[in-house]
Request: fold
Amino acid sequence: MEKLDFKKEYKDLYLPKDKPVLVDVPEMTFIMVDGRGAPLHDEYHQAIEILYGLTFTIKMSKMSGKQPEGYIEYVVPPLEGLWWCNEAPFDLHQRDSWLWTSMIRQPDFVTPAVFEWAMEQCRKKKPATNFAKARLEKFTEGKCVQIMHVGPYSEEPATVEKLHAFISERGLKNMTGNVRKHHEIYLGDPRKTTPEKLKTVLRLPVE
Reply:
């Protein structure tokens, strides 16, 4: 059986073109970890360690005889991030004021019971890591505009401006703030990909 690959199955959500497009994002299940500050800080790297630790524990559960009911073969979805600021509109340049939620989508068979089992396994393997920071949550974005940004993260502001122009042209209202948030989906690994070739989905909520 072919593995489920969310990027291929839902191309409209994960593989937009380099021009803005309007999408309606349905409910999905994520493992999430919250934090603050620029992604260069240790807190962000610890969040990524927690997310991938839990995600791969669930994915490889079939190898331990603990395969959950409804388990399917799948490709681990890409890392995603929600970004915002408490006291002001989100500003891509004000890195120290950023708040964030890092998250990885999970298949439908990942229930709270499956998540708690994975938490227990991870705590046993890495007792020094604070897996209590993670949570399993259903998340619905609804109507958004998005675009594919190709290049360094530092050049995202110019691509976001294309989204702003599209929003204005279509008579939409930009709802980006500390409730509905700036959303990024990371399709490239900065450890293995040159900055010029990094691909990031940029998504803004609208109404």
In short: The first strand starts at residue 21 and ends at 25.
